[in-house]
Amino acid sequence: MTWVIWFVVSYLYAHFYRLLHNNLRINLPGLGWLMRSMKRDLVLQVRGVKLYMHRPIAGSNAMQLINRWNEPETHQFLDALMEGMDAPVTFIDVGANIGELVMDMARKECVKSVYAFEPVDDCVHSMAVSVALNAFHNVHLRHTAVSNKIGTVQFNYSATNPGCSGIDGSGNKIMQVPTTTLDIEFPQRIQNPILLIDVEGAEKDVLAGGASFVQRERPLIIFEYNNVSRSRFNLEQMRDVLGPEYEIYRLRQRDGLLDNDFDDTWNCVAIHRQSVYYSKCQPLIVGNSKTSL
Questions:
Q1: What is the rounded distance in angstroms from the CA atom of residue 22 to the CA atom of residue 113?
Q2: Domains with residue ranges and CATH for the chain
Q3: Looking at residue 292, what is its pLDDT?
């Protein structure tokens, strides 16, 4: 029963970690190490879905251990966006990691198809088990990276923290992974796509490889824009890639709403003025007279 002791310690530490992160913006080290020390795979219940915790990459399940999402604001935003949605939706997750958002979106009635792109073996394995546990039939796993060209690319992999891995990411292991592009993967029309990109600074390359896809489909785009991303591109460059019909907002960490304060960002949201999502986003923009608080 040694694993139970490690579980209890990890569970308590996760609560302490969350308290410091939410109130003081301090990220304590060691939670992933504690979770891996259980030396056991687990099935976690998180907000009504099952998430598989694969021990070698258990740190990716950090907040899920205490029935919370790792990025709650993104879930809040998508929940609000999907409320009352009667048109079919396609959700595309580039850099899906263990599939936290994949599993949450796959269960929504309006989401007809989910595509998850992830090059790391352990993460793909974890997602595949979670898909089976939840009996999802609308999830399509793609074991590849997404970039601006087809081929192979050097990938920096962190075994203890796969979320920091990437073409432009950090890690202690370098490996070659296959790459694809959004234009190759989605050559035909799809239904009202939402595109989430979390690739540790290579977000602009993903969009460069999906120029035709973006122009044709006008997806709502959620992209990571934190201290890592800022060292590789800025928002003006992103606006140049997307074109003048897109508006970019910060996704607020405290409530999942949108605003124009870009001094402290984690994710941003780009909305095409002619997309089905433009009107649905208006009540979520702080400062808009129609904002729902």
A1: 33
A2: 2-66 (no CATH), 72-284 (3.40.50.150)
A3: 44
